[in-house]
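Comment on both lines for my students:
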Amino acid sequence: MTKIVLITGANKGIGFETAKQIGKNGWTLLIGARNEERGKNAVHQLQQDGIIAEWLQIDLNDIASIHKAARYVEERYPKLDGLINNAGISGDMQKNPLELKSSELEQLAKVNFLGNFEMIKSFTPILSRNHGRILNVTIPATPIGSFNPLGYLASKASLNSMIKSFTMYYKKHEIPVEIFGVLPGGISTDLNQHQSGLLIRTVQEGGESIAKVMMDRHNHQGKLLMRMGLTQLARNFVFRRHD
């Protein structure tokens, strides 16, 4: 039986590449995106590769859109196997903590924490009937070296804690949903102005890392999985160093 996965923010970047990798393995894709034109364009590209895909209007800023999408999936795709919470915002990662405004922190929390909370809460009933899994794309929540974007880190720290909290609740109440996080490391996307460097991977590499975890048969309940492509990064370092 064909598996079905919903991926938020799948119209571009790492979300689109993740969708492409999973779709090539025969899964049906529900492409969550805010913008209809961009969402349908992504679906068209996937369909040209023979992938079954459909656009769903989902805006993490708009709880009503999440509830509407959940009702639609309940009716049309009741056998949903997986949810990938990929959509998110970074804010201005160049600002130091004293330059940030409360309104910026509030917006980051609204999308990266509250939006994903509503996704998890809304789709758990559907996924529980199918013993499904929820993969959350996240990052380490501790400042490292020169990487200290307070708002982005704080919002992802909340997401990481939420993964643990839902894990405990699912276990206690015997809800058959697997929830975990994947940390793909530095990926060159528009979130970081397509940054490049020895420690930055391509969206293709990042998408492949996430897709592999989504499709594997291992139990990752409650885990935050490092999938930063260390072998690839080491190879990049060796070869670029000698260019």
